[in-house]
Amino acid sequence: MKKKRIYFSAFGLTFAVLLILFITCGYAPFGNKSLAVDDASIQYLDFYAYFKDVLAQKNSIFYTFGKTLGGTNIAVFSYYLSSPFMLLSVFFPKENLHSFFDILVLLKLSLASMTFSIFLVNRFRKYLTENTESARTFFVVLLSCCYGLCQYTIAQSSNIMWIDGVYLLPLILLGTYQIIHGSSIWKLSVWVALSILFNWYSGGINCVFSALWFLFELALYFLGSSRKYSHIPRKALVMIFRYGLSMFLGLMCSAVLFLPTVLAMGNSNRGSLDLAALKDFSFVGQLPTILESYHLGAHSTPNSTSLFCGTLVILAVIALFLSSTLSAQKKSMLACFLAVIALIFYWKPFYMVFSLFKTVESYWCRYSYVGIAALIFLAACFYLIYLDDHTAVLLSRGWIIFSVLLFFLDNIHPGEHTSKIYLTVFYAAVTLISVRLFMYSRNFKSWKKAVITLLCTGIILSELAVNASFLMNDYHADENSQYTAYSLGSQKQIGEIKESDSSIYRISQTSTKIQYTDGATANYNEALAYNYRSISGYTSSPDDTQREFLERIGYRENGLNMNITNSPVIAADALLGVKYTLSAYPVNGLTKLDSIEAENGKSVYCNPSALPMAFLYHDNSESIQTPQTDDPFVYQNYLYSILCGHPVSLYRPLSYTYSSKGDSDSGTDQVYTLSVPEGNYALYGNIPWDSPMENASLNVNDSYISRYSWWLSPSAFYIPAASEAAYAKVSIHSDNGYFIRDGGEQFYALDLDALAAVSKEISGRAVEEFQLENGHVSVSCTAADSSSLLYLSIPYDKGWKIYRNGQQITAGLLDDCMYSIPLTEGKNQIELRYICPGIRAGILLSVSGILLTLLISLFEHKNRLQKNKL
User: What is the distance between the alpha carbons of residues 181 and 830, in angstroms, rounded to a whole number?
Assistant: First the structure.
């Protein structure tokens, strides 16, 4: 019970600090602010809404048509959603997910403090007295709070899925220590398995750091051992074997989720490793910046890492090396360990290893919590092992050294954080006084001692609270109420579409929750959030086959994660079965549905030419020449020609003139004047570029201005033009020069009448029965002859098993993406069943790992009992 009081004290104090900050600063559920910022706002909240549907059995982890064109979502689940805390989402409606997110932060950070107290209590158990009010207990609780409220946990709170690794790291470090000291291997295996299962990314970081920690604990063990040198190699080999076996068993136990995740990530270039970077032995920054960034409100940058976790910690680390009680041999060993800790943030080979062999381009530094844990451990060594009457003196010297170094480094590299450095030095002095007062109060009566303990605790925690408030002010969003309104509107609008039309189709949209003034957006996961089929997706595990297909028909690949799909291309959408478009503006060729109210500024438009998602066709591709061009409009003509069985020309080129406008002072615009044909047309353009033109903007016929030729910009774009207009204008403005491909401009008019005719022709070959669910497709159709093919608007995935009349077959692909299934003459019953690749093997490995861990643990227990009898 005494240990539990320590654990719950660490949890409760962290919880109280954060709760007070949330209430006073107005964070959800107490206000409009939220820690769900950046990718949390762009992606994670939509994933949480999707997970709620999974729990309600309205969507699937293994396969969903809400992810781009459809695909497995196992890697999204294992990275973002597999934490057990996600089960709490059932208590929050989709419109209140900001509150859910902030509560997750509150609980996970408090749990991190608790697990670190478990680590300290059990790692230093022989130094802790039975009296839970002892001085050492006081420092255990406060150091644990320093871990839960450190720079990393606040600055990276928006990446809430990584915090599972933060609260599991102390238990992995404890398990590593116990392996060396003879405990059963299952203790480490369980925590390793859970860490990988809850979030494989931070779990991987924990595993890498565990190996380093094992070597450190091994060195400490033999440094304090009385064994002869000749016995050390054999003993060390036994420990290394037991540690390696324990880690391997932990990995095996996690295979049920980890193996399918690895296979799913293999569908994209994002799954590749940047191993070549290991050959670069340079530094990403200067080592002294690790101390220079140890101040209140510090941010980690690409060239410096902040390990701030309170001045209580840094003063003790310095004092530890000033202590005469610590032997020179141990000081040297701890200094080497501290140097290695610094190197993992600055030396590129180490940096790449702890970044899991991937080049990191955001969220610096993703694994700094391991360095913070190491610092707090060293501080614990001082407070829990070397605590004596000289403690206050050593801490005072530590304060002087820390202050001088901090001011010296700030003087060399003066910046905007000088005031926070002064504040840090002040808080270091206050912390020093608080520790001295607490140490002095040990001889007081119990009530006086309790009052002073509470006072000192409050003072030390106030520094952590101030640091948290600085960081929360930098890493938050003011959008709780806006999100609630948007979510309610989207749920209502999608619900009305589904209620009015129960057929099978996709939905697209021209704007999203976060839309910048230049038209750019990265919110491409709303189909997952509101459970509909779409053509959009933004995940860390995309399918390159789909992305390349979308690129060919006009929806540009952006980075390694997404395609830009918010500029509608009607013929491309019709090909994909996009029947409805949510748009803030009318698009020629789409019909507005007045029966469904506009929500979030978007009305519902119907594409009358949308093709069915399953129909018959004959393969005449040999008679149709494959276009050798990257022109998406020509390519769409080609695909329609294949599906129709004869040449189709939906797009006709527009004639245009080119000119420059402006001067050298204001910059020049590249202007295209297009001749608008008479008739029923929708106009489109695409202006390929050879290099990105940063800050370039596209003015489309003075109707809208869009970001162009750089991040989040489209390639093909819609050109609004009145039916009676003779001309339309498109212009590009760039501050950094023009890198437009010479002669590569593409301007076309889509013949809407021809599209309607083609759609009618193809729709006449729709299948008789068609059922489509996540992970299962059933089709009944009749083929006139054996040369008939079934087109399914379902992208290739190696997890699909295809059956024709009960027998498994191999299907072809249209354009290396969509399924084209050969039929037999007469009645055909086609069935597609999705089996997540690796799931069966993963289950087998996990069950084997669990059984093997149990057997080894029982064997160890039996041997331990026999030794005790002897």
Answer: 60
Name residues whose C-beta falls within 8 Å of residue 653's C-beta, 6 or more positions apart in sequence.
747, 748
How is 366-401 classified by DSSP, letter by letter?
A: TTHHHHHHHHHHHHHHHHHHS-STTHHHHHHHHHHH
Find the helix or strand (DSSP H, E) in which 450 lies.
helix 446-474
Contact in structure between 373 and 202 (CB atoms under 8 Å)? no
Three-state SS at 525: coil
Classify strands 818-822 and 769-773 as parallel, antiparallel or unpaired.
Answer: unpaired
Helix (H, G, I), strand (E, B) or coil at 834: strand
pLDDT at 388: 77
pLDDT of 441 reads: 81
Sign of the dihedral defined by the CA atoms of residues 65, 801, 553, 618, in that order: negative
Which stretches of 179-239 are assigned E, i.e. beta strand? none
- Tokens 């098993």 sit on residue: 801
DSSP output for 411-432: HHS--TTHHHHHHHHHHHHHHH
Query: Under the phi-then-psi rule, with left for phi > 0, alpha for psi from -120 to 50, and beta for the rest, what region is 676?
Result: beta
Measured distance CA(236)–CA(248) in Å, rounded: 18
β-bridge mates for residue 699, sequence order: 705, 731
- Cβ neighbors of 606 (< 8 A, separation 6 or more) are 579, 580, 590, 591, 592, 593
pTM, rounded to two decimals: 0.94
> What phi, psi does 590 have (nearest 5°)?
-105, 145
Residue 426's alpha-carbon distances to 287, 395, 402, 409, 457, in angstroms, are 24, 14, 11, 17, 17
Tell which residue, 586, 477, 582, has the closest CA to residue 526: 582
Structure-token pair, residue 402: 């820390």
pLDDT of 132 reads 45
- DSSP helix/strand/coil, 835: coil
Give the CA count within 13 Å in the CB-facing half-sphere of 550: 31
Pairwise CA distance, residues 862 & 196, whole Å: 30
Share of the chain above pLDDT 70, in %: 98
Buried/exposed 359-392: b ≥16 CB within 10 Å, e otherwise? ebeeebbbbbbbbbbbbbbbbbbbbbbbbeeebb
- Which residue is listed with tokens 């409805």? 580
CA distances from 671 to 219, 624, 660, 870 (A): 70, 35, 6, 93
Check residue 654 and report its DSSP letter: P
One-letter amino acid for residue 672 of the chain? Y
Indicate the pairing of strand 591-592 with strand 603-606: antiparallel
**pLDDT surpassing 70 at residue 313:** yes
Distance of CA 392 to CAs 55, 142, 388, 414, 438, Å?
A: 55, 17, 9, 31, 10
Residue written as token pair 């009052």: 451
Apex 256 CA angle, 253 and 257, nearest 5: 110
112/165 Cα distance (integer angstroms)? 9
Which phi and psi angles does 806 have, rounded to 5°? 90, -10
Decide: helix, strand or coil at residue 785. coil
Phi and psi angles of residue 830, each rounded to the nearest 5 degrees, phi first: -105, 135
| pLDDT at 165 > cutoff 90 | yes
Across the range 166-174, mean pLDDT stands at 98
Q: How many residues does the chain have?
A: 870
Write out pLDDT tens, residues 704-730: 999 999 999 999 999 998 878 899 999
Asked whether the CA dihedral 29, 32, 38, 43 is positive or negative, the reply is: positive
Average the pLDDT over 152-170 and give the result. 97
24-76 pLDDT, tens digit per residue, is 999 999 999 999 999 999 999 999 999 999 999 999 999 999 999 999 999 99
Q: Please provide the average confidence, as pLDDT, over all residues in the chain.
A: 93
The answer to whether 642 and 620 have CB atoms below 8 angstroms apart is yes
State both tokens at 6.
């320590």
User: Do residues 192 and 850 lie in contact, with contact meaning Cβ atoms separated by under 8 Å?
Assistant: no
Q: How far apart are CA 165 and CA 197, in angstroms?
A: 10
| 346: pLDDT strictly greater than 80 | yes
